[in-house]
Amino acid sequence: MEKDAQSSLALSLLKRAHGNAVFERRVRVLAESLAAKIPSGASVLDIGCGDGTIASLIMDRNPTITIEGIEIAPRPSCRIACKPFDGTSIPHAAGSFDVCMFVDVLHHTHGIEALLFEARRVSRRYVLIKDHVADNWFDFKILQLMDWVGNRPHGVVLPYNYQSRAQWDRYFSVAGLNVISTQDRVKLYPFPFNVLFGRKLHFIELLEKSEARQ
Q1: Reduced to 3 DSSP states, what percent helix, strand and coil does the chain have, rounded to the nearest 5?
Q2: Cα–Cα 20 to 30 A to 31, which of 4, 104, 132, 192?
Q3: Does pTM top 0.90 for this prediction?
Q4: Residue 174, CA distances (Å) to 38, 74, 179 in order
Q5: 62-117: per-residue pLDDT in tens?
Q6: CATH code of the domain in which 63 resides
Q7: HSE toward the beta carbon, residue 210, CA cutoff 13 A
Q8: 78 located within any domain
Q9: Structural domain total, the chain
């Protein structure tokens, strides 16, 4: 019991430290970067929206954008309208939204290809993704550490399913999605942390449905 209590306290302290040092900057930078890639007036589905903070901040930056979310376990405190889903099938009809958005979601699932196909189905035109790239063992271990620190205190499932650049390109091609805008340096961390945890481990890409497979 004492060991469990110590573990719980350590995770609580880790959660607080991460929130103070990283969370606020991360959500602000992501909201700014993502908002810049979403067309004005677009309707957006945030797949795996969490507590809706990033979506809410995007709408603050561009009030013409409307965002609703889906989540495996919707939170009562979610800042946007949110529906439950099973993690595989998106509970919306084809072409329901202008943009389907994944923000650090796909590496938490083993079904990347299936979710991309679902996002393509539900989107009228665009799929917007923020995720990670791991092209070698060192990158993988750094991302694994980041994931554990950022998500373990919240009880998030951590499959560490990071992809290389070539693997991402294959997934997009198979799903009939063409990359039209890429940002491979996302300044989530202040110096000197960005030297280790930044680099090109993060990307934001706006993808468009291939005309050949509309």
Answers
A1: 45, 20, 35
A2: 192
A3: no
A4: 23, 30, 13
A5: 999 999 999 998 999 999 999 999 999 999 999 999 999 999 999 999 999 999 99
A6: 3.40.50.150
A7: 10
A8: yes
A9: 1
